[in-house]
Each structure stands twice: as structure tokens, then as C-alpha cells.
Write a structure and sequence with these properties.
alpha/beta, 16 helices, single chain, Spore Coat Polysaccharide Biosynthesis Protein SpsA, Chain A, 2 domains, elongated, 6-stranded parallel β-sheet, Rossmann fold, 9-stranded mixed β-sheet
Length: 430
């Protein structure tokens, strides 16, 4: 299987040539044609470079608009060419090695109409910080461990900087709506049409495409966002709510957690109220960013030089017994000799936990028997051996249990405003 890559270009010679060269360098066997459409660029130097690229590589096709038609019309022209699947790529984006192959493979791993990759700057696809832009250099050349996380995460919408389209979906649904010309929110509208027709759109969690961002629309950006955003919401009144619900679900952060772990920046919120827990925090400090959930040991942590980050948005929250955790976080429950196994809501919370940690084999056996927990979900980490705890955190970051994540996501959406002091009642009803 091969895929065409369509790149509309207008300005920004440096970004554009980096983009095009990355496609030719990293496209691999999956690349059929690189279709470049010059949308009447005012930069004559850009056209000379494009013509040189066409002469040097037989995979390059170059089209030129006589007048500037805007992104939507130009993208539609490129998407309408050929019979293969097609990737639409912004000219300020750059493919990384293996990204095109993975986009194509992910596209066909389910009933996906289209998928978007991970990026440093792509809102719902952003890593290492979800929904926040980071500089390109943050991910450039960084080896990432992404093989263990789910290959795709179904989302309410795509990100237009890079979209791999299934040709059959384009033939059925049509192209971008010209009413969103010259651009902005056209991909969101197309995503809603696809979902309404029974297709899915998703994030490809193992493909990375770098994105500078901000190179299009310039001063008109804010106005287009408002005007086209209103049109989008008028057509799809649930769009904003669905996007917000996804953003606050545990599923949304799967890829960002894995990327942060690869960068030794996994964010762990854990209780630190005893010397044993202080030692655990010290042990994690070399590879992770930890946050103590109690203040009583704050000074001790300071003197012990434990790198605790204040008020972080955690990737993994460790809770002793029944307790509150952020809706977007993976949950690990800590059970020691002070935790009553008949505590109200504990079985329900364990059903939402990615892992269970205890400090003795005897207690682990009781948890397996009395609380009916499978052996592989119970980890024993003693005060003298914190390595199993680190391995558990690695597992939930890189290979989270999809079924538990789905369950926790449903719980988070059904309990968006659960009070801090009333988790027991919520957990009992989960």
C-alpha cells in the first residue's frame, strides 16, 4: 500500500523546504507521490526551489494556482487527485522516520476515516504536554518508547496540520466544505461529518510529526477562528462539550504520558507522610517528577533533596486507600497495614486503578483473595526494594490497561464535579 502526500505551499521558504525534504527523506516505501501545490506564492525564490525539487526527484508532482485560492480550495484540489489514501500536510510540519508507515497502518487498523499523528504542537495530539504547544526542538531527535501504548485513540476531531485520509471515506463524505475557506475549522467540520456517517477519527499514538505552527493566516487567524467556530458549533451543538469531555478523560493523556516517561519527565503524585514514603519519593526522583500530596513532609523532602514539583497535572496519582484523584490521571492505589480492606468504596476504586501496590506478600495475598484482584495487578514494593514500584509506573505509562482506562474514562465523564471529600460515595456507585 502506498499513500500520496499533499502539501499546499504559499510562504516561508525555510519551513516549506524542511517539510518537503522530510517527506522525501522519511517517506519510505509508503510514499507514492509528493504533490506540491503552490498557491500563487509571492516568493519567487520558493518557486525556484520547488522546480528544483521536481527535477531531482521523480516522486514530486508540482501544481501552481494562477491566483491565490486559500488553503481549503488548494487542499481540496490535492485531495481529489489519485486513488490511493492521502496525507494532507501543512508546509510548516516535518515528518519523522517511520511516521508515514505508521499513519497508514493505523488508518487501516479500525473503521477510521482519518487519523492525525502526535506532535509538539497539535492541541489534542500535543506531546509531551497535552493541549500545549512545545518547541520543535523538544521532540527533535528524541527516542520515544511508544510501542506499548494503544496504537490509536478515538477522538471527537482531528488536527488539520497533518491528516491521513482513507480514500474510501473521502469518496463517501466529500472534501472540505468551501464555506470554511480560506481555512480554519474545516477539519473539525469534516470530522463531525465522518462521525455522523458512522466512521471514527483518531489520534495515531505511535506516529510523530513535528509542527512549527502559526505560519498560516497570520492577522486573520483570530477572526477566522471566531467566524468559522460559530459556524461549526451551529452545525454541531455538541462539538465543544464532546471535545472538553475527551480532554478531561484518562484516555486523552495516554500518548503524553508515554512521551514524558521517555524523556524522564513522568509526573507522579504520591503521598509522602512517612519516612518509608520519603525514601520511595527519593528513589523515583532520578527518573521522574514527583509531587507530595501532603505538606507534613515538605521540609523533610527539601532537606533530603527530593525533587518534588508543586501543583503539577499528574500522569499517575498514587492514593493510599480510598481517595480522590484527577480525572485525567492514571490511578494507582496504595494499600498497607493501615488500610482496612473493608473500607467503603475500596473494591470499586480498585476497579478503576491501573495498579495496586502493597508492602508485603502476605497483604498482597489477602488483596488477591478478599478483594478478588488478579495477581498481575498487585505489586509488592517494600521499604528496601522500591524497584517494583518504578516498574509498575513504567507499565501504566507505556502499556496502560485499555479496559481499565475505558472504565475510568466513563467514570470521569459521569462524575465531572465529584467533591474532594466525598469520593467514597462516588467510588461505591462506580
Amino acid at each position: 500500500m502506498t499513500v500520496d502526500v499533499v502539501v499546499p505551499v504559499y510562504k516561508h521558504l525555510e519551513f516549506t523546504m524542511q517539510c518537503l525534504r522530510s517527506v522525501l527523506e522519511h517517506g519510505g516505501p509508503a510514499l507514492g507521490r509528493l504533490i506540491i501545490i503552490n498557491d500563487a506564492s509571492p516568493e519567487k525564490e520558493l518557486m525556484r526551489h520547488l522546480e528544483g525539487l521536481r527535477r531531482d526527484d521523480g516522486r514530486v508532482r508540482l501544481l501552481v494556482n494562477r491566483v491565490n485560492k486559500g488553503f481549503v480550495h488548494t487542499a481540496n484540489l490535492g485531495l481529489s487527485l489519485g486513488e490511493d489514501d492521502v496525507v494532507l500536510l501543512n508546509s510548516d510540519a516535518r515528518l519523522t522516520k517511520g511516521a508515514l508507515d505508521e499513519l497508514l497502518g493505523c488508518l487501516h487498523c479500525d473503521v477510521f476515516a482519518a487519523v492525525s499523528p502526535l506532535s509538539n504542537n497539535a492541541t489534542l495530539c500535543s506531546v509531551p504536554t497535552f493541549q500545549e504547544a512545545s518547541p520543535v526542538k523538544m521532540l527533535e531527535g528524541v527516542p520515544l518508547e511508544l510501542g506499548g501504548i494503544p496504537r490509536a485513540t478515538v477522538m471527537p476531531t482531528l488536527n488539520g496540520f497533518c491528516i491521513a485520509f482513507r480514500r474510501k471515506a473521502l469518496a463517501t463524505l466529500g472534501l472540505f466544505d468551501p464555506k470554511f475557506s480560506p481555512g480554519y475549522h474545516e477539519e473539525n467540520d469534516w470530522s463531525q461529518r465522518a462521525r455522523a456517517a458512522g466512521w471514527k477519527v483518531a489520534r495515531a499514538n505511535r506516529a510523530v510529526v513535528l509542527h512549527h505552527g502559526g505560519a498560516s493566516f497570520h492577522a486573520a487567524r483570530a477572526r477566522l477562528d471566531v467566524v468559522h467556530g460559530r459556524r461549526l458549533v451551529a452545525r454541531y451543538p455538541n462539538y465543544l462539550d464532546e471535545t472538553e469531555q475527551f480532554a478531561r478523560s484518562p484516555l486523552s493523556g495516554v500518548a503524553a504520558r508515554a512521551v514524558r516517561f521517555s524523556m524522564n519527565r513522568l509526573r507522579v503524585r504520591l503521598p509522602v507522610s512517612t519516612m518509608d514514603e520519603l525514601e520511595r519519593a527519593r528513589f523515583l526522583g532520578n527518573t521522574m517528577v514527583a509531587e507530595a500530596v501532603t505538606e507534613t513532609m515538605g521540609e523533610a523532602c527539601h532537606w533530603a533533596q527530593v525533587p518534588l514539583a508543586a501543583k503539577i497535572a499528574p500522569d499517575v496519582t498514587v492514593v493510599r486507600g480510598v481517595g480522590r484523584w484527577p480525572a485525567t490521571s492514571v490511578l494507582v492505589t496504595l494499600i498497607d497495614h493501615t488500610t482496612p480492606l473493608d473500607e467503603v468504596g475500596l473494591p470499586a476504586q480498585l476497579a478503576l486503578s491501573q495498579g495496586i501496590v502493597t508492602n508485603s506478600e502476605g497483604l498482597a495475598t489477602r488483596i488477591r483473595l478478599e478483594l478478588a484482584q488478579p495477581p498481575h495487578r498487585v505489586t509488592v514494593a517494600t521499604k528496601d526494594d522500591h524497584l517494583p514500584f518504578l516498574q509498575l509506573l513504567r507499565k501504566v505509562a507505556l502499556s496502560p490497561d485499555a479496559e481499565i482506562l475505558e472504565r475510568a474514562t466513563r467514570y470521569a465523564l459521569e462524575h465531572p464535579d465529584r467533591p474532594d471529600d466525598d469520593l467514597k460515595a462516588d467510588a461505591s456507585a462506580a
